[in-house]
Amino acid sequence: MNKLVLFLRLVKFEHTIFALPYAYLGMILAAYDHTRGLPTWWQVFWVTVAMVGARSAAMGLNRVIDRAIDARNPRTAQRELPRGLLSTLEVWVFIIVSLVVLGVAAWKLNPLCLELFPVAVVILVVYSYTKRFTWMSHFVLGIADGLAPLGGWLAVSGQFDLPAVVLAAAVATWIAAFDIIYAFQDVDFDRENGLHSVPVRFGIRRGLWISRGLDAVSVGLFLSLLIWVPLGWLYAVGIAMVALLLIYEHRLVSPEDMTHIEKAFFTVNSYVALVAFVFTAGDVLWHVFR
After folding, report:
1. What are φ and ψ of residue 207, in 5° steps?
2. Residue 17 pLDDT level (bands cut at 50, 70, 90)
3. Can you say whether the dihedral through the CA atoms of 157, 285, 222, 126 is positive or negative?
4. Which positions ≥6 away from 121 have C-beta within 8 Å?
5. CA angle 265, 270, 275 (to 5 degrees)
6. In this prediction, what percent of the chain has a pLDDT beyond 90?
7. How far is CA 110 from CA 107, 158, 168, 266, 267, in A?
8. Higher-scoring residue by pLDDT: 103, 19
9. Where does the protein principally reside (predicted)?
């Protein structure tokens, strides 16, 4: 099989749709908040490069660090490393190249992004180990993915602002919420192998309520951006649609029926990310060009 295809499968390239729209969201909101304008094409380019590097490195690290666990889990035993389709050395080279790409992009964006590059790397590494000792691993993943909108904001503004932190928190809680649902698939395996998660610690029924609560917090945080960033009705409509999609997601999954987890995890949440981005971008474009 073509190595490129194997590496794309390794990093689940199709899941980039979860993170990339939020990086663009942070970028667009920062430009609008600071200049009432739009980011430059060079900023868009280097943020895209940074996201590809960051996500590729993160997924590569997760697969290498978890390769022994994945080999024992029937759900993940067919992944590239457990099957020997890619070697550990090949994946480590891929990770190093991805981190170099991320570092170059950070350098090209601004000094603050470059200074924070090591912090991002540490968070990416730490996440893969967290489920070995804490049920809060979902929240660490949320923080890691929350770096996408925060990084997009910093790439344009070169400084920390309260709306950037709120946006990052909104994405972090949303990511944690659907990662809890995704973890329902491995509850029995995780218990048998001493791994930690919210459903292992609190059970599936309580895990669902925790996930719902996190999604409610996420929607509230998205709406609170209206306090600091002069967005309009189009943004509010977009977040209302996000809320409806999240309600639909939670109707797909119950303690008695786990057959729709993949649909809830991938299909619905990909729409959430796209709707949030499209309506926010539309609102900003309306204000900039009207």
Report:
1. -60, -40
2. low
3. negative
4. 57, 99, 102
5. 135
6. 84
7. 6, 6, 19, 33, 35
8. 103
9. membrane
Structure tokens at 175: 């990511």
Question: Minimal CA–CA distance to 81: which of 96, 97, 62, 100?
Answer: 62
Alpha carbon distance 246, 136 (integer Å)? 21
Domains of the chain, start order: 3-289 (1.10.357.140)
Beta bridge pairs of residue 254: 257
CA 275 to each of CA 25, 164, 238, 246, 253: distance values in angstroms, whole numbers, following the listed order: 11, 19, 6, 12, 21
**Measured between alpha carbons, how far is residue 78 from residues 3, 67, 83, 276, 288 in Å?**
16, 11, 6, 34, 49
Rounded to 5 degrees, what are φ and ψ at 60?
-60, -45
Closest CA to 146 of 221, 79, 83: 221
Residue range 136-165, pLDDT digits in tens: 999 999 999 999 999 999 999 999 999 999
The count of C-alpha atoms lying within 13 angstroms of the C-alpha of 187, restricted to the half-sphere facing its C-beta, is: 16
Per-position DSSP letters for 127-181, written without gaps between them: HHHHTTT-TTHHHHHHHHHHHHHHHHHHHHHSS--HHHHHHHHHHHHHHHHHHHH
